[in-house]
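Figure 6 in text form: structure in, sequence out.
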């Protein structure tokens, strides 16, 4: 299926009910299970990634298919390693190409027994769950913070606790901090000094929990505001003081024209008159925002150099190559360096006559390109638009409410 998206005929003036935070939801599901809590989680995300994790945790089966949910793969692998029984976990063909050796090796070193069912180093996995001894692990922190979060959440239940020594440049630190903050709310403390995180044996305590809205999802509305002429957009469920690392999106967009005005649990977006001649930023801590800023800056004609993108190579798709390929269709020539940098100095080429954006089974490709309709009189076509269900199931309905017209094409 293809969606043909046209810009609103009027200015964008809308109030948006954002989805709940996927990052918080997925962590709290694990912590709720580890604490044997009877409290329901309020405002839990209903996106695909969270649903497959919730279903797995509530299932009586011993075989789990988590489809394309990378977070669920990492978190469940660690969780099941400490649950007595024999388990198997698999996913889509793309999931079978996403490496997991670092996490499996770490778990096996503290007493787990996990085997590869097909290709060495990749899902699907067979897990023989049992009590874990714990101890000390040295881990490469430059690949994925989800490995670290997966280990930390089960750490207090290991017999000796866990000391994590992180090597390399640790990426996505706000996500690790988020994990530790949520663990603390469930009664478990940790000590993080330099690149060493220590968790002693402890017990989780069940607590009621309400999930806040998703700052990653908010980024697409900041992009819409930036590409619009006179936007008036209100985003509900967001707080100025947030545990989410992606809340930095507001501060970054201030540099390219959009101001944020907070009122209790909502934020208003309006033009602030700023316009950077160039934007340089290290996305090591917030890699999920990269696609939003790459597309926004290109369409606004703002040259950029974005580093810290090494984790984009192992996401739902190779996001670096996907961004280069899709923006070229619109006449923008991006360069990459060392699999971790994307740069654009204004280089252009002849655009395709009727470009169709490929999404590569990646929700963020669809959502970061949809606002481009605001800059194209003929609108924009996006292939496989249903991928947004992975994190933001109501995205297209929210666009329509804001005045965008969407036509379905086969």
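Output sequence:
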């Amino acid at each position: 299926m293809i969606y043909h998206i046209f810009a609103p005929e009027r200015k964008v003036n809308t109030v948006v009910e954002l989805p709940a935070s996927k990052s918080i939801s997925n962590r709290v599901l694990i912590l709720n299970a580890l604490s044997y809590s009877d409290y329901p989680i309020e405002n839990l995300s209903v996106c695909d990634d969270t649903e497959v994790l919730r279903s797995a945790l509530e299932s009586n089966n011993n075989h789990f298919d988590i489809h394309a949910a990378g977070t669920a793969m990492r978190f469940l692998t660690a969780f099941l390693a400490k649950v007595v029984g024999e388990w198997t976990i698999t996913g889509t063909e793309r999931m079978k190409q996403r490496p997991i050796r670092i996490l499996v090796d770490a778990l096996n070193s503290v007493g787990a027994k996990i085997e590869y069912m097909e290709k060495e180093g990749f899902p699907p996995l067979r897990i023989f769950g049992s009590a874990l001894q714990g101890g000390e692990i040295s881990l490469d922190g430059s690949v994925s913070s989800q490995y670290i979060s997966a280990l930390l959440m089960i750490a207090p239940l290991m017999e000796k606790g866990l000391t994590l020594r992180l090597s390399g440049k640790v990426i996505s630190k706000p996500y690790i901090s988020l994990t530790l903050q949520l663990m603390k709310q469930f009664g478990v403390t940790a000590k993080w000094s330099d690149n060493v995180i220590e968790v002693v044996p402890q017990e989780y305590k069940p607590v009621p929990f309400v999930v806040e809205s998703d700052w990653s999802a908010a980024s697409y509305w900041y992009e819409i505001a930036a590409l619009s002429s006179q936007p008036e957009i209100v985003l509900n469920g967001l707080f100025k003081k947030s545990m989410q690392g992606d809340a930095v999106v507001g501060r970054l967009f201030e540099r390219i024209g959009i101001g944020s005005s907070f009122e209790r649990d909502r934020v208003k977006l309006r033009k602030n008159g700023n316009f950077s001649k160039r934007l340089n930023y290290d996305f090591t801590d917030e890699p999920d925002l990269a696609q939003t800023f790459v597309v926004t800056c290109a369409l606004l004609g703002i040259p950029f150099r974005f580093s810290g993108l090494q984790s984009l190579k192992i996401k739902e798709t190779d996001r670096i190559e996907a961004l280069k390929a899709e923006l070229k269709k619109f006449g923008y020539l991006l360069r990459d360096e060392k699999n971790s940098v994307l740069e654009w100095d204004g280089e252009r080429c002849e655009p395709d006559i009727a470009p169709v954006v490929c999404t590569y089974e990646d929700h963020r490709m669809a959502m970061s390109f949809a606002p481009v309709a605001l800059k194209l009189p003929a609108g924009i076509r996006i292939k496989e638009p249903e991928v947004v269900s992975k994190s933001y199931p109501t995205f297209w309905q929210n666009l329509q409410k804001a005045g965008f017209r969407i036509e379905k094409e086969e």
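Caption detail: The CA atoms of residues 235 and 267 lie 5 Å apart.
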